[in-house]
Amino acid sequence: MTALPMSAPVRSVLARQLLWRKSVAVLRMHFTDPTTMVVFPAALLGSIFAITLIVWTLIPGDGGQGWGEMSIYCFLAGISALAVTRSLPFSLGMGSSRRAFVLGTLLTNLVLAVGWGVVLFVMLRIEKASGGWGQHVHFFWWDWYARSAWPAVLLLQITSLAAAFALGVLLAALWVRWNRLALVVGGPAAVVVLGGVAILLTSRHWWGGITGWLGGLTPLAAAGLCAALLVVLLACQYAVLRRVRG
Asked: What are the pLDDT digits (tens) for 164-206?
């Protein structure tokens, strides 16, 4: 019996469903190693926080500000790079498309960014309510957050974490695509470009205006910048990954 040909809309729906299933499979693949994706970042942040509290207890002071929270951004960028370099060849070898891998990695990014954003937000609320852990010190809270309402602070946490993850994916994509050439050529090129920009800003005396503008941002405006940066990073990583050979 001859099968009836499918119409274009039906084929399009089936293609989207297949893409979604493959993307979810990539998401699950990334989380097959929960130790790297979840446990290590939690242990790292928790240990830094505990050590910082011990130091503050031994050396009392008012208004101390810890920077240990930034470690979670660095670690998210690192595990995202590891996830791409480790999972991309296997995923393509198992029949996943590059588009499905990018979408599945984006879903992973969103899950981690929302999860960690909520964790950091809850911790800063506890810190604020406890008067800086009873010592008037800050690990998660910044006075700058008071410029916007709480939802804007949560949005900033999520978008900034997502941007850090996306940056790690892009760096890994460049490595997978061009391997050592990305390091040999891209590294010096980045130094030249960034150095040139720094020289230009210094010669034009623009640093003061830029830092003043950044200092005047609200958390909501900063969240918008992080979201814009995230879109740029996603576009760049897709442009690179779509040319990676399986």
From this structure: 999 999 988 888 888 776 666 766 777 777 778 778 777 877 7
Q: What is the pTM of this model?
A: 0.86
**Does the residue 100 lie in any domain?**
yes
Q: How many CA atoms lie within 13 A of 20 on its CB side?
A: 6
Q: Which residue has the tokens 């050396």?
A: 59
Structure tokens at 26: 């990539």
pLDDT for 27-46, tens place per residue?
999 898 888 888 988 998 99
Domain that holds residue 151: 18-241
Residue pair 63/142 in contact by the 8 Å Cβ criterion:
no
Looking at the 3D structure of the chain, how many domains does it have? 1
Residue listed under structure tokens 């990305």: 182
- Angle in degrees, 0-180, between the axes of helices 71-93 and 98-129, rounded to the nearest 10: 160
